[in-house]
Amino acid sequence: MTRARAEALADLIEAEGKLEKSEFAGVQIPDRPFTPADVAHGKELFLGSARLRNGGAACLSCHTVSGVGGLGGGQLGPDLTRVFERYEDRRKLSAWLSAPATPTMGPNYKNHPLEGEEILALVAYFQEAAKESEEDSAPRALVLVLLGLGGAAGSFILFQHFWKDRFTGVRRALVTGAALPATAPKEMA
Questions:
Q1: Can you give the CATH number for the domain in which 50 is found?
Q2: Is residue 81 within 8 Å of residue 129, measured between CB atoms?
Q3: How far apart are CA 56 and CA 109, in angstroms?
Q4: What is the Cα–Cα distance from 43 to 58, expressed in whole angstroms?
Q5: Do the domain assignments include residue 175?
Q6: Phi, psi (5° rounding) for residue 93?
Q7: 16-25 pLDDT, tens per residue?
Q8: Is 43 exposed, middle or buried (0-12, 13-18, 19+ CB in 10 A)?
Q9: 86/124 same-domain check
Q10: pLDDT tens across 73-88, in order?
């Protein structure tokens, strides 16, 4: 390190110390306990029923969390049910959400960053999801197979209902004629 660089660094530290809020500080997340309203708002943000303030995509479009119901969420990103436990505390998870570093999320949220209260609400929801999560009683693939079989059976019943009234006048004569023994006309013989 050169003397000029060291002096510039010292000047930067001195200037930063005089600021009320550092220009390098990330999103500030309060340390207050989570409320049920935080959890509910986090769930709304995750599901997309409440829009993110800066226009980012809802988490559900790429991720899932146990208990979201229906067919769950997206499959592009990982299941976030236990993300709170993986990051071990709210500060680490909040820091990650303030600047996602994955190749997929980074570009998507670079121009649409999450606000502090949105991060707080999402972290509250992830903490609650980790507490309440139980392993799904039926694997998601089984649910999809059963839905597919039910849809196919319903389609067959629907087709049968409409197909029974099809026009059969021309075909009936052909089928009846084909069932008669083939005899050559006498003139041809």
A1: 1.10.760.10
A2: yes
A3: 6
A4: 10
A5: no
A6: -65, -40
A7: 777 776 655 6
A8: buried
A9: yes
A10: 777 888 898 899 898 8
